[in-house]
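S., here's the first fold you wanted:
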Amino acid sequence: MTALAILLLAAAIAFGLSKFFRLPAIPLLLLSGAGLNALAGYQAVEIPAELISEMIEIGLAVLVFTAGVELSPRRMRGRSRAVTILAVSQFFTLGMCGVLTAVFLGYGWTTALYLGCALSASSTLVVVRHLQQRRQMFEPYGRLVLGVLLLQDIFIVIIMVALLKSPEGWLAICNAVANAIALGFLAVAFHRWMVPFVVKRLKLDDEELMLGALAILFAFSSMAYLLELPFLVGAFVGGFAISAFPMNGLVRGMLGSLSGFFLALFFISAGIFLTMPDWGMVGHSLIFIAVLIVVTVLLVAIVAEVVGYSSRAAVETGLLLSQTSEFSLLLALTGVASGQITPELFSMIALITVSTMALTPLLSRESVALRLVKWHPRYRKGESACAAMKDHAVLLGYGRAGPRTVRSLKERGVAMVVVDEDAGVIRQLITQGIPCVQGDGSDLRTLDRAHCREAKVVFCSMRRTRDAQVALDYLKDAPVQVLVRVFETFEEDQVRQAGGQPVQTAYAAASQFLEWTEVNLPREKDASRA
């Protein structure tokens, strides 16, 4: 009990420092564990090795189970092709780059395979938390990312099982993979039929739901043990089994504090388990981190745009997936337990994982994505088409409402110009023969190029309402109707005071844009009759 109390005290200190200095908690938890390890070396504290091992295993089981709960396949509906292409491309290309880099640095093939697999999967916990904080779980690119994470986790579970059985030959590998797939199918059946039945027929309170979720965790972990699979495989598929809506939402809230508790114990224990890296290990870790970030951002940005996403969404997806996973630590731990890799290699994989997790909030900022999008090849062929336009419509930001608005304006024979900073959107508009300007809708030069002062109506559908304020100030003295998409109620008053007409949310914006065109921009035939 004394050793456990020491672990909890170290975790509390790490979380306190994280809140005070506004730093990621995971690196501080690992440093706290390393500090305890140093104190143990001076015999200042005594923490049994068995307790450390148990905390790591239990913590990983809860974390992997929590990750599985977040990955409902329903979020992939309508995006299965894009998700599959992107997940397969990123996972195997990045894994191959990791293996080749490891071989180039002088590692053996078994070690290189572990390093390649460790680099190939992204962290479900980090990405989901980031999407939740930014309220982007249901954005198109957010759904794409969640689908990619689900397939990546499935890939790495299967590869991990194969690597662990590789010393026993191909027959053992095939048998273990078949057992893992069979357990996965059982989880799919539970997800599809059992969870809806329980939700509809039984009214469970919070305590019963918590006990039921933990029972599923232990049940699938036990089945994994009986099938001679790592029990963490059972924890992951158990989480996936209850990821169906609304069960996942009910369980997620209850698991939040529990997963946070075991998250702290896991990373503190992992910090104690780590060996101090030498300069060579640090240098190799930096090389792998650079390979991971560069390859992921470039590859994902290209592939996501090819499968139909805008340049900005593609870049944001690449930035958000640029870290290694909790499954990387799981893979490294099982490799150490089986004797296939050394504790030093586990320390290097942990260093890569923690560093990239800590970098994710910095890399995935909107400002970083915007800077990278500006490096995209330009497509300006359609800009000259609006040189002499007058009494036209201007769309500042294409967004989700753009296609419907453009279609309505076309049906009415209304001339239009679309302004968007995304090169992928501009390319699509040029292909469709729609006049367009690539640029920032809050930039005065861009507004001049679109001849907004000579327009009849300007639709502002940019992400930030403050960007629309620039357009409103620019058009203040011009006889132009300005419709502005807003997200909050207080923004409506600001838009009205600036002379614009506010419209709530993207889908409402599309409807109200079209309603406005029905009244103010009649169809060409109707106008001729009038």
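And the second, which I think is the more interesting of the pair:
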Amino acid sequence: MAATIEAYLREQAAKTTLRFLTCGSVDDGKSTLIGRLLYDSKLIFEDQLAALEADSKRLGTQGEAIDLALLVDGLAAEREQGITIDVAYRFFATDRRKFVVADTPGHEQYTRNMATGASNADVAVILVDARKGVLTQTRRHSYIVSLFGIRNVVLAVNKMDLVDYGETVFREIVDDYANFARALGDLDIHAIPMSALKGDNVTHRSTAMDWYRGPTLLEHLETVQVDHDLAARPFRLPVQWVNRPNLDFRGFAGTVTSGQVRPGDAVRVLPSGRESTVTRIVTLDGDLAEAQPGQAITLVLADEIDISRGDVIVAAAAPPQVSDQLAVHLLWMSDQAMYPGRQYYLKTGTRTVPCVVTELKHTVNVNTMETQPAKSLGLNEVGVANVSLGQRLAFEPFRENRELGSFILIDRQTNATVGAGLFDFALRRADNIVWQALAVDKAHRAALKHQQPCVIWLTGLSGSGKSTIANLLESRLHDLGRHTYLLDGDNVRHGLNRDLGFTEADRVENIRRVGETAKLMVDAGLITIVSFISPFRSERRMVRGLLEAGEFIEVFVDTPLEVCEARDPKGLYRRARAGEIANFTGISSDYEPPEQPELHIQTVACTPEQGAERIMQALAERGIIPGF
């Protein structure tokens, strides 16, 4: 018995594993197809089959017959609505291969979930309803599949039983898809007519479609060749954890993503660039003479090098690139649009760094593959962009390394994942631009002026009194001999920002430019007063992040909308109400009030002079104008 079990385990270990996903438009039969594969492979236990039969009578869509889709649609909402929402992973095996299949949702709202499944797949099974043909979501999923480097595609023309198994229908769909797919690059497309519900050409050859001479879906999946030669690539180990159980041991734990490593190998640590030699490869089961891709190990190095989580240990002779400015493909996953200039966290592998999307070059039309200029990226849209990182990191183009070539973007306030992307290449200008050391710095300039520089940021609705208070404040500071400069929203739009309108994208860029200007003025040693509506919290946080602690003082000039509208000194509210001004803050565009401003001035309870006086007192308390 022991020998039989050992032989079985050796046989299973020798099998290759294929990861594939099913995708396509809504109700094309993805869940039913996976259910059919599991059912026909006899991988359903008796208690599961009994539960499936009961669920089919209560929740199924096939009358008295078994609804195979319920095998993978496990969420209550999925069963109630008859659609897939989340990604469901299932394992099954045949005599020839092991499989991990991802059932991904077809609904446009859950495209981000589909992208998650595509990120780890080797083969994509793209289903098409024979009655409907190639749809927009079919094209979108196909583009995402190609974007994530999947070259092996099965075009599964499903529900052939509903079109009388007609060969003409199948050929027309195949031709239509082939014409579209030419723009996706070098894809290996294999088309199969099938009926997942009836089982035709899924695991058994269909007698109803004797005109089809190719393999069944399962036969194709058992024999398709994919490139898994990770061991032949250069060694890469993203550090997950510094293992220091005692004073005598210090190792660096992680999972090998590519290449091989042995004791004695020369390695380099990125982004620092320090080099050393591997002395031990430690695992729970003892030291190894060699580590392969996919193995979780702890490396011990010959030299004491400062290494932390997020660093990458690589082959010294073949290191990846290191940069802080990169060109990327970006799939947006949030209802809140992406605007260049907003700050996010970028997470790749085990490293998380601050990030700004500096430029959106264009979006991609998934129907025509044409590029289109854009100022923002909406939900489920794909764009090509440039990103600037707060720190240099090691990366490789996604086509060369999935682990070091992919990333997600995280909202800095909510910690929600808002985008997923692929690194394309480093921007050449990143290597040409370095910080120039200056003999005279901010401290010297501030000392010469006998003051502490800062930004006093007044935010509030139009007509709230920001500019009036800002003018009074600068006059008071000027009378005290302080060196100041006032950046006013209207004045800046006559020069620096004259090319910007009032869309949300332009408002973001407006504040980004003003924030960078204010930072330079603080560096010059000035007390900088900024009077801008600045309606979005994210941009105000961005400016705060540009400055050192204590240098950004947010002043909320709080005036009710009805009071601002009654004042209406420039007649803007009247025009906005008449529809003559679009995107007007408070009327047709939102204002996000500060949550924890350094100073909250309610203008209905004080005069502008009193408001300016309160700011002066706050500056004195912070030591910015000592002796006031």
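Why I say that: Residues 198 and 594 are 60 Å apart (CA to CA). The chain has 18 helices and 24 strands.

Talk tomorrow,
H.
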